[in-house]
Amino acid sequence: MQPHIQIIIASVRDNRKGDKVARWVYEQASKRDDATFELVDLKEWELPMFADAKLPSMGEYSTDIARKWAASVGKADGYIFVTPEYNHGYPASLKNALDYLYKEWNKKPAAFVSYGGQAGGARSVEQLRQITIELEMVPLRSAIVLPAIRSMLTEQGTLIDDEARSGAATKLLDEIIWWAAFLKGARESVS
Predict the structure, then answer these.
(1) Rounded to the nearest 5°, which phi and psi values hold at 81?
(2) What are the tens digits of pLDDT across the range 32-56?
(3) Do residues 176 and 78 lie in contact, with contact meaning Cβ atoms separated by under 8 Å?
């Protein structure tokens, strides 16, 4: 069975650019037949700030929203995080979503598409690699970094596709699908 990859939109702000970037990633991914893809928008989840007394690493979730979030994340074999950079870091909404769970993230690949000003979100990706390692994920070396994001959008708000971006997307998708399939097989062989 093909791996299932979630494309997670990290920003929950009004007038965000992340939904446009994620739509472009999804369109690139949808051209493929070696995996399935799903857009997951943290804005639609409206996760309250994590304050559960129970540890996520124990897999005991005391709220309905946590159990639903666990079920959604748990069905994926890998993740592409589409994230902006805020003040040299990633948004609190993404950290909160990551902190809600533990085992659902384990032994699955994490890829990153970042956007922002001059650095294009590269600093947020560096921090997220550390977080995903602690969640027992496999962060990929390749990432797509989109600096000066406003200049890459059409008047209608779609990301302008070019050869370099398409090539970067192909490389990122090749890598995450390979890792997702490999790790899925490994998880299934030991469970």
Answers:
(1) -90, 120
(2) 999 999 999 999 999 999 999 989 9
(3) yes
Domain ranges of the chain: 4-190
- Structure token digits, residue 191: 């469970």
**Token pair for residue 62?**
């005391």
Which amino acid belongs to residue 32?
R
Residues 35 and 3 sit within 8 Å (Cβ to Cβ)? yes
Report the b/e string of 55-79 with b at 16+ CB within 10 A.
ebeeeebeeeebeebbeebeebbbb
Q: What are phi and psi of 92, to 5 degrees?
A: -60, -30
* Residue range 4-190 in CATH 3.40.50.360: yes
33: region left, alpha or beta (phi > 0 left; psi from -120 to 50 alpha): alpha
Q: Please tell me the chain's helix, strand, coil percentages from 3-state DSSP, rounded to the nearest 5.
A: 45, 20, 35
pLDDT of amino acid 92: 97
Handedness of CA 133, 1, 114, 52 (dihedral sign): negative
Structure-token pair, residue 21: 């970037």
Pair 69, 100: CB distance under 8 Å:
yes
Cβ atoms of 128 and 99 within 8 Å: the answer is no
Sheet containing strand 36-41, edge to edge, reads 36-41, 4-9, 78-84, 109-115, 138-146
Contact 107, 136 (CB under 8 A): yes
Q: What are phi and psi of 175, to 5 degrees?
A: -65, -45
